[in-house]
Amino acid sequence: MNLSFTYDVLVVGGGNAALCAAITARRAGARVLVLESAPKDFRGGNSRHTRNLRCMHKQPMVVLTEAYTEDEYWEDFMKVTGGLTNEPLARMAIRQSETCMEWMMEQGIRFQPSLGGTLHLSRTNAFFLGGGKALVNALYRTAENIGVDIEYGSEVRELKITEGRFTSAVFSRKGFSHEVRAKALVTASGGFQANIPWLKKAWGDVAENFIIRGTPYANGLILNLLMDQGVKTIGDPTQCHAVAIDARAPRFDGGIITRVDCVSLGIVVNKNAQRFYDEGEDFWPKRYAIWGRLVAGQPDQIGYSIIDSKAMGTFMPPVFPPIEANSISELAELLKLDPEALRKTIYEFNNAVQPGKFDHAVMDKCGTAGLTPAKTNWARKIDKPPFYAYPLRPGITFTYLGVAVNEQAQVIMKNDKPSKNIYAAGEIMAGNILGKGYLAGIGMTIGTIFGRIAGGEAARYAKG
Amino acid sequence: MPKDNQVSPELIQEGERIMRICNACRYCEGFCAVFPAMERRLTFEESDLNYLANLCHNCTECYYACQYAPPQEFELNFPKTLAEIRLETYKKYAWPGPFATLFQKNGVASSVLTVASIILIAVVIFLSTTTESFFSAHSDIKGAFYEVMSHKAMVVTFSTVATFMVLAFVIGFIRFWNDTRGANSAEVTPSAFVQAVGDTLQLKYLDGADSGCAYPNEVPSNARRTFHHLTFYGFLLCFAATAVGTIFHYVLGWEGPPPIPGISVLPGESDGLLRSLPVILGSLGGIGLLIGPAGLLWLKSTRNSLLADPKQNGMDAGFLVLLFLTSLTGFFLTAFRETSVMGSLVVLHLGVIMGLFLTMPYGKFVHGIYRFGALLRNAVEQRTMPQLGSE
User: Fold this and answer.
1) With a cut of 50, which residues of chain A have pLDDT below it?
2) What pLDDT is recorded for position A34?
3) Which residues of chain B neighbour A48 with C-beta distances below 8 Å?
4) Across A15-122, where does the E strand assignment appear?
5) Structural domains for chain A
6) Coil, helix or strand at residue A121
7) What is the ipTM of this complex?
8) Which terminus of chain A is more exposed, N or C, with fewer CB under 10 A?
9) What is the dihedral of CA A108, A114, A115, A120, to 10 degrees?
């Protein structure tokens, strides 16, 4: 790092989007500095917890089977967002997702067929060999090899912006403050999900019961600085990618292993031992992303996924052992639920289950009759002890409130004019595309595409 | 079996904790056979861990890819934990049981036993030959080193040691196989056997899914696989040299020493090159046994110390040094076999080989026995056991 001269491109952030931008800018001939706020061991933001990206493709490609067309991708996308999106940006991301894998492989990222237990994703999602941290390692290695300057443990505290034009940034490193000048700025510093006070501002005190699945370094500081400097925001502060995860997970950084994948195989009750949503509405991978909000809406933001021994061994084994009991009353006591209420809920559920041929591999239409809410698929009586329960909490992956961008990844100022030299990529701008809901693997697609665009445009501006 | 040869409960507990985390994550599935084998299980008993630990080739790709590796709070060090379990399984399966302690002091044991072997060979030689003969030059025509140690004495000494060694390997293998049988009692099929042999000969799981593995550091490299191939095939070629020499001796009646090609073809012999076969094989193997072990030692010295089990340093180094010395003394003996230092070189070379043989059942060599066993079990399981759990 050389602070005596002006860099062409300053990249703030250290995850996939940031490195895609840095590498693209460097390959375009720019002098690039990356400021990653995390120490080296925790570099990579949420990317270190990811595992795949969603790619459109017209025929089988590398590890992806069959075809996944733009239309089908768009349809899947519309189902989860309900149309809350910027269509030109979303369509652009979908179309360009076809080019991601080839480019990533050129940067040393390796792919593998979809993981065991994720067969339904083999057509749509390309898995990184070794997961997101292996991807992050490869990107850093490439960035270092081509001469990108990288500083860890460097948190940007101040951005100097006049009339939509960035000039310099002040950052803190090992307790000292430094100023760095650059001709262009790429912000790829994530959402604000790890900033609990900010979450509470949006959600109220219920946010105290949220678990942050990923990096504790996503404090939203850069987003906040940009907002203060007159950048236009987009998205609802309560919207986020949130799933229901094991309530015993650590507050931050628990990652994929805190998942609980048996919701569709049993029932989910709240602290009053009442069911509150159709557990069998659709395949779990299509529904896991709504359960975070559902649990967040329950009293004390807690739920309990309950199954019996028939379901054991047929879902991805969670890291925390289940709470186990030989009777419903005993289970209720272990969960500190009202035994009478839980027995009644399960009794009514069991009586409502209609006969049918259970098959977890298809939407088997084994449902309940006369029950509210109904369970529409995979409904089986919960009657074979031992009974098992997993406590659930909302697990926030990333928030959607972000900076508005255009197709060049330029941030838009409050006067609706694009900034001259400020770009954004990744979670900090994902809200342009994701108004609500989530589609597995699309976060990395957005990061890769907008990272590359931001890096390329920033370099072009700086060199031009 | 003595009780202190059991895998420690703390290690089993840590292995179980790690497997639970890994089985919920599965990101490393594409690296090797260990993770898919893990996915065929939901719970992990000692027998499962002993099997998985021996299936692990210690390529360490998974450590660098792990989002839960230290300093993350889960402190997950997959390769090191499996390496620690592996060492304890070596002790558990060792025969005779009391010798298992040699695994821990293998570096010392190798040195002591090698020196003792050198002395033993010297004693055997001096019992049957004169000091004058020992320090004289002997031509190949007269049988060179058989002048100082008779063929018969060599055969008796080494076949005794080799029989003991093979017995230890066979018993160890049987103990491993029975210990790791678990719930899956499916029989070994010919195709599973062929696959396991192929996986072993190619070192399939040291390729880190094509681009090499993270050894000695994070950057994927094929260095370890290359040096291991040189060592392994070098060893096999030397073994082949001995086997061919034995066949020449007993079947064709061509008594040794085999001629060095182009230099010492015996008068009147037209089939010199064929007769030189043991020397050719031995020399090619010897080159492998010089470069391979030296390279592996060099890689080991530069590897990430966070991933190494320090208890195994002596064992790893001891075996590699003995392989290297076997080859080195072999080359010296071949080169100087018609000079007056031949007698001393015979003592040195045979002493090193005997030291190697004696320590092989209680040192690094056994990894090959159990790794093959684990690959065989893996091949059987792939055909008979489904993967468990899905989203």
Assistant:
1) none
2) 98
3) 67
4) 32-35, 52-54, 111-112
5) 7-238+400-463 (3.50.50.60), 242-395 (3.90.700.10)
6) helix
7) 0.95
8) C
9) 160
